[in-house]
Amino acid sequence: MTADVAVETTPEIPLWNDPDRPVAARVDALIGAMTLQEKIAQLYGVWVGASANGGEVAPHQHDMEEAVDLDALLPAGLGQLTRPFGTAPVDPALGALSLLRTQSRITSANRFGIPAVAHEECLAGFAAWGATAYPVPLSWGATFDPDVVRRMATAIGRDMRSVGIHQGLAPVLDVVRDARWGRVEETIGEDPYLVGTIGTAYVQGLESAGIVATLKHFVGYSASRAGRNLAPSPMGARERADVLLPPFEMAIREGGARSVMHSYTDTDGVPAAADENLLTGLLRDTWGFDGTVVADYFGIAFLKTLHGVAGDWAEAAGAALKAGVDVELPTVKTFGAPLAEAVADGRVPEPVIDRALRRVLGQKAMLGLLDPDWSPVPPALEGIDLDDPEALRGRIDLDRPENRELAREIAEKAVVLLTNDGTLPLARPRRIALVGPNATEATAVLGCYSFPQHVGVQHPDVPVGIDLPTLRDTLAAEFPDADITVARGTGVDDGDLSGTGEAVDAAREADLVIAVLGDRAGLFGRGTSGEGCDAESLALPGAQQHLLDALLDSGTPVVTVLLAGRPYALGRAVAESAAIVQSFFPGVAGTRAIAGVLSGRTNPSGRLPVSVPRGPGSQPTTYLGARLAQVSEVSNIDPTPAFGFGHGLTYTAFAWSDLTVDAREAPTDGEFTLALTVRNTGERSGTEVVQLYLHDPVASVVQPVQRLVGYTRVPLEPGEARRVRVTVPADVASFTGRAGHRIVEPGDLQLRLAASSTDARLTATVTLTGPERQVDHTRRFHAAFTQDPAAQV
Length: 793
What we know:
The chain has 22 helices and 29 strands. The protein is globular, with a radius of gyration of 27 Å. The termini are far apart. Residues 688-757 form the Fibronectin type III-like domain.
């Protein structure tokens, strides 16, 4: 049916194609001219794969979906194209040509000429064959450097836009609650402020390049019971409000994110995909979000198959639409014929469809997809002869030198030195025993959402597409005079002990052992880290701890290097390793970054975004525990970490001194200003990371013993000092009170200036005065740092 409304047009173009008219007017006119089928078609995607020869895309078949007939669908239009580059290995130029031709087909087939939004994964770089694989988000967190993450996201966004992509499914803003969860590598860390600031920087970079950033997973996915993927989340309302929601608040308000992806989980029996209070009441009515809400893949169908809150596909579609989901991804399932039937029989009101459609078309209008001069030719193919597809092969470089340089900078800033007895940096080692399953594995630097690990493993005959030097390669270049003996020892998770003797023999013949351990990223049990690769405990996978202990018994100093997606308990190595170097899947430049730290070419400045446990079974815990979560005399389990959140060593030393506080009292709507001097007392340049933690000794509801409320990196030359000033608004002390509102309470607070959550250097006790004050999502999020010009001492 067609709505019976008068549609205003100009003699040249319809109103909806007129870029000089307000977006809302254009969208309303277009909706008024659409049939029900045409409306619904804008609310779903189709999972496709670009043609390796530059032809049109082909529908991707998945075991959770039925075959899709594009010829039957396209006359009504199409909302999204799912992962045209990220489904199979395709040369980027031919993939761009394939997408171009498909968009031309889509616009020609529907009577309004509306193209689809093309989306891709971009969690650790553009997930396309041949694109730069950057460090995973856990490494972003380890940098404590929003600026470098913003620059990375801008570069990723530019590459995506250059080939015709509009939307990126990142960043993940889930806060780690249990490190056994397989998707820890995809997160930024265990602290909501760190996740919020780093994640917001990523959003700002992606959006600045014209890509729609998609926040995920909203909300509670990471709080699953026992760290299992897709498990219920037993979080309470206060944990959700004070730990899990703040990163999303920040990324929407300060980052300008234009899309949100709902979580798979349920909270207290209500699945996120059907939670109207969450997706409409909080997200839109309270926070004012006006972008699109997209489904996590198959998440609407899961309302029937996994959650059991819908009896059929139509009921699932209606529940999701009513809650506030606008787009079904990755492909049409419930939003197709079942939704049309539900409208026809009165179960789903058509205005609910119009509400979602208004958001979808509004976004397409802002992307220029409704403009009369819109062209399917992406920037990278402009001005190029497209008649000979084979001549295009290799014309688009998604792994340019400037990309790799940026990947190197992030990888170097993300390496965390956990312990060091003085062995590092290495002088001129003569004999090195390089041992462990990740010593010669090129893909050991990649996370599960990198293209080679996510898609490439299904195409073993296709080259990986990017240069991935092994740690063996980079150590040989870093120490050209060293004799390096390689011994595998054991696999990542095969439990094989047969190589232990060879590894120990190599260790005894060497001056130094470098043990390279950790994870293999994969999906759904095909790895030890990644989506669906949850851990029963935080012991090193397989027989790696056995190998490590045998190396420690060899009598040769052992430097333990971890290429991993989560923190692991390291047993004796915490005390007995000569040094421990932690790296979280550091990307294409990762092994060079590690080699630089080992040699001293790079002074490490990374800090832990997640705590490293002392024992493999002391989970779930994060540093954000309340007093009852700390070690006590009434439990035999000690949750104290081996290395706390924020920990990291360098090859120089820093002195903190001269703390001043401008005023010890401030009203509950006021602020405090503190200052300290940080001096490099060592003999080489380095970077200190000043962290500010808040401790609220008496509150109306139980609080964490401390929580991060600010941080800044302070680079210093030898002998250089800087005066670091920080303004701390009372708002950062807010929390959700007993009535369910966020409040700032009067009373004493401790502001701890610290090198980590376990290493407070200077503490100021201050007092908030006056009445209790209620705040909301417009509160001040940040303690603001400034640094005076460097002064020589």
